[in-house]
Specification:
Length: 132
């Protein structure tokens, strides 16, 4: 429900401000009684699609992603896990998403390197595993 509510908001408000987008995501997360880190998953599942590159979704939504993660390494690890989930059907998109978010200053280099070194952990969604 939180993802659907956020998708609806984004569709109905294509020019919404970063603050309005984040407020919507927070409201959806709280209304669904989800954990704070679920805000990242809600937003990524709502805003980033397989057409992210063609539709310039990363450029458009990077400021909202930054505000949601607040440069918190744990939140950024959840961001990487959410991106993995988005890329399950097309894994080649994953490094492109990581690079674009890094270029937009929405993902810190240290977090990417830590993730690459440690691999999958408690932040990785169960739906994304080595057999995918």
């Amino acid at each position: 429900l939180a993802v659907e509510g956020t998708k609806k908001f984004l569709k109905e408000n294509p020019d919404a401000s970063v603050d309005d987008i984040v407020e919507c995501v927070v409201n959806q997360q709280m209304a669904s009684a989800l954990k704070s880190y679920d805000k990242v998953h809600i937003f990524v599942q709502s805003a980033i699609t397989i057409n992210f590159f063609k539709e310039k979704q990363v450029e458009k939504y990077a400021p909202a992603i930054s505000k949601i993660t607040q440069s918190n390494p744990m939140m950024e690890r959840h961001l990487i896990a959410a991106l993995e989930a988005v890329c399950v059907e097309k894994p080649k998109n994953f490094p492109v998403l990581i690079k674009q978010l890094y270029d937009e200053d929405a993902l810190e280099e240290e977090v990417i390197l830590q993730w690459a070194e440690e691999g999958r952990n408690e932040y990785t969604l169960d739906a994304v595993d080595e057999d995918s």
